[in-house]
Design a protein that fits this description.
By secondary structure, this protein is an alpha+beta fold.
């Protein structure tokens, strides 16, 4: 028998009947796009909270420090998928980091398991993409449909929040032979600091399928190393764009 999906919203919010009826009518009256924007804004607000609160006082448990990235994990009530939070400095201006995160090509550079990224639509500041993920031993290939929004932090104008979550899109059906993964919450919060920037990354993602939840949660903390990979990517891009005139003059003449 098929496993029930694990990407629900957890325990439903308790409402009185009048509030529940109003909420249902409101959702029914919204377009798919408006409903998505409300979801994105809600997740973004949650991301801002989870990245600014005093970690140890709000359920985050300090896990480790690796490659100059501090890592915390958190178990959320009503959802078995563990969240991970990483924070580290990146030796690059915030604008350079944000430029990378706004695109889609960086995702394949940061995660070698991503095989394909297809842009589906881009409207009203929200980008819809279809990702195919493979290359993970003993696991079926995964795919996911994601929505991404880039906005300024509402209380810190110089800080940028890049929020991503999974969506059900009518034009993006699951790939044959693939398991549809689900991102509950994913975001980068980029704060400029004296010509560099502090990057905080949060993720709560379920690969779904038959992967046991204890395995999903055991490897969750490793996801925070994306901050270290981001540093490596920036250094690699800077090296690739170095001018050829850095070569000795005689070599330049010989190859000209």
């Amino acid at each position: 028998a098929a496993l029930p999906p694990r990407h629900g919203v957890g325990q439903p919010v308790r409402m009185c009947k009048a509030c529940s009826d109003y909420s249902t009518k409101l959702k029914e009256s919204l377009s798919w796009e408006d409903d998505l924007r409300l979801r994105m804004e809600a997740v973004q607000a949650n991301v801002i909270f989870e990245t600014t609160v005093d970690a140890e006082k709000d359920g985050w448990t300090y896990w480790t420090e690796q490659n100059d990235v501090d890592v915390w994990t958190k178990d959320f009530s009503g959802n078995p998928v563990r969240g991970v939070r990483g924070r580290g400095m990146v030796d690059a201006p915030a604008a350079e980091v944000i430029h990378l995160l706004k695109g889609t090509t960086y995702q394949k550079a940061l995660d070698s398991n991503i095989e394909e990224i297809v842009a589906v639509s881009s409207e009203n500041g929200i980008e819809i993409s279809h990702l195919v993920v493979g290359g993970v031993p003993i696991m079926s290939k995964r795919d996911m449909c994601t929505a991404k929004m880039v906005q300024a932090h509402p209380h810190e104008p110089d800080t940028t929040v890049v929020t991503t979550l999974s969506v059900d899109h009518p034009d993006v059906v699951p790939e044959n032979g693939h398991v549809r993964s689900w991102i509950h919450m994913s975001a980068y919060v980029v704060r400029p600091v004296d010509g560099r920037c502090e990057v905080t990354y949060v993720l709560q993602m379920d690969p779904c399928g038959w992967v046991p939840m204890f395995v999903v949660n055991a490897i969750a903390s490793k996801r925070a190393m994306v901050i270290h990979e981001l540093r490596n990517l920036i250094q690699a891009e800077r090296g690739a764009s170095a001018p050829s005139s850095d070569k000795p003059e005689e070599v330049v003449r010989a190859t000209g």
